[in-house]
């Protein structure tokens, strides 16, 4: 099987969020789950995508962290279609169908930018009780007064807690208790916490940090699904408007700056969200399993 290492959401090597991308040989079925899990653990990236081509413009992808399979991963999807562009399997401008455990999604490639359709946005609840907000703040290493707006549990493929903080300075000072955050994530049945501060200079929509220790990811440099969820969260708050292009900056605290773009449109009365960005290939080779 061929593989590549792709830095997603960056046009520079060692920027963005790296993902492993493994392409199954023609006619090959997915390896046993245990084998894919061990491969992801061996590659040591937060997610590794396994691609099976179903038709010329249709693909199936399964996603594995070093700890478990997940339904969807934004940066690994961007990385997968970037890798397939490098392998000349997809064109620089085209539309494709992607089958995932989160459902069937559309992928659009335009002039080197890969945009993926998010799963249908779902608001799974709001943390409005002061005691619970204080608990969340304590786990994240900040004060309850630093949290703005009631945190929301939102999913566009994977559920996260959207936690807004009062400034970029507060965002940069977040230091979670990772063991406590894993337990809290389990109790809320979410992947983790997507923390953000609204842009203070108008150059972006928000600055973000993402924490998912429950899945062995203490912090992630770029998370497509989480920023898709944040797009919906801020749309419900009236901060994001339909059909505008949004820019989320993430990964600066990890010295892996990432730029994640999103747009939300209304179709048949329902919100539809696309998340995208560019990519850069770091390495490629063969996996012998």
TrEMBL record:
Q: What organism is the protein native to?
A: Aminipila luticellarii
GO MF annotation terms: isomerase activity
* UniProt record similarity statement: Belongs to the PhzF family.
Output the NCBIfam families linked to this UniProt entry. PhzF_family
**Alphabetized UniProt keyword annotations:** Isomerase
User: Is the keyword Ribonucleoprotein assigned to this protein?
Assistant: no
Q: Which residues form the active site?
A: 47
Q: Origin, by domain of life?
A: Bacteria
The identity of this protein, by name, is PhzF family phenazine biosynthesis protein
Task: Provide one Gene Ontology cellular component.
Answer: cytoplasm
Q: Quote the InterPro entries the UniProt record gives.
A: Phenazine_PhzF-like
| Record SUPFAM superfamilies | Diaminopimelate epimerase-like
